[in-house]
Specification:
Helix content is about 45%, strand content about 15%. The chain is α/β, with parallel strands linked by helices. A hairpin with a 2-residue loop joins β5 and β6. α1 runs parallel beside α2.
Length: about 280
């Protein structure tokens, strides 16, 4: 029976996921496939490269670096996450990513992206990080504050717009054992988005705007569906047990550390349950 690990995004809320994954690496928790959304994908690659501690290390070191992510990068480049720094300097020089270990991993890795023209989610298998880097970047390109990413003639943005937690994709593809790492507490439900900025900026992409309009409703239904599956022991969910007020783009090191430690704590406390579920 194959095991799928689903990683929700949420900007730097997903530093919680980094804590969970570091716990998994330390305790040799293995799965057959991973699908990441947005920051879940960007942080999730380190699980396959077996680089425990890398995400929290580079996040803290660059929290106040204007070349990393933030308003300064957005003004300069049109992307809240600096393309040159995050997808070049960081992974090759500042805190090198282990491409060799990732590419040798037997774990299948997928990312969720949103097709800007159709407004629908697409799920891309990443076989080689360097060759497929633009799909990763697209998955983490938050709308409004990021440029549209073009890959193989298609236009993409953040996978969280169309499918924040791809549980239905997992079930459709035959995974019977599914672990989900969410980045919001169980009681959280999404509210309607303010559509005017989307209508103005994406006036040429009405299907994308329609998806944004329905996003809150789809997300909330997905959360309810996951909770029902959880009660039936069909999925295993790790989610924040405490509410920590942290922004999607956060430079407060204390909050970043707090969110990461919560991920470690929650995962460690549920290890026995998780191992039982996986058997």
């Amino acid at each position: 029976m194959k095991t799928l690990l689903i990683l929700e995004g949420g900007g730097l809320r997903a530093i919680y996921t980094a804590g969970v994954l570091d716990c998994f690496l330390k305790n040799n928790i293995k799965v057959d496939a991973v699908i990441g959304v947005s920051a879940g994908a960007l942080f999730g690659i380190n699980y396959l490269s077996k680089q425990q501690g890398r995400v929290i290390r580079y996040t803290l070191e660059n929290a106040n670096n204007k070349d990393y992510m933030g308003i300064s990068s957005w003004i300069k480049t049109g992307n809240i996450m600096n393309k040159d720094f995050c997808f070049n300097k960081l992974i090759y020089e500042t805190d090198p990513f282990d491409f060799k270990t990732f590419n040798k991993s037997k774990i299948e890795f997928y990312v969720t992206v949103t097709n800007v023209e159709t407004g629908k989610a697409e799920y891309k298998r990443i076989n080689d990080i360097e060759e497929d880097m633009e799909y990763l970047r697209a998955s983490g390109s938050m709308p409004i504050v990021s440029k549209i990413v073009k890959v193989n003639g298609k236009k993409y943005l953040d996978g969280g717009i169309s499918d924040s937690v791809p549980i239905k994709w997992g079930l459709k593809n035959g995974y019977k054992r599914i672990i989900i790492v969410e980045t919001r507490p169980k009681t959280y439900r999404k509210k309607k988005s303010k559509l005017l900025p989307y209508k103005i900026l994406y006036k040429d992409y009405p299907r994308l705007v329609k998806t944004v309009k329905e996003r809150y409703n789809i997300y909330n239904k997905t959360k309810t569906y996951i909770e029902a599956l959880e009660e039936e022991n069909r999925v295993f969910v790790i989610r924040p047990t405490e509410y920590i007020k942290i922004k999607r783009i956060e430079n407060n090191k204390d909050k970043i550390q707090e969110m990461y430690r919560l991920g470690l704590k929650d995962a460690n406390e549920r290890l026995k349950e998780l191992k039982k579920y996986m058997k």
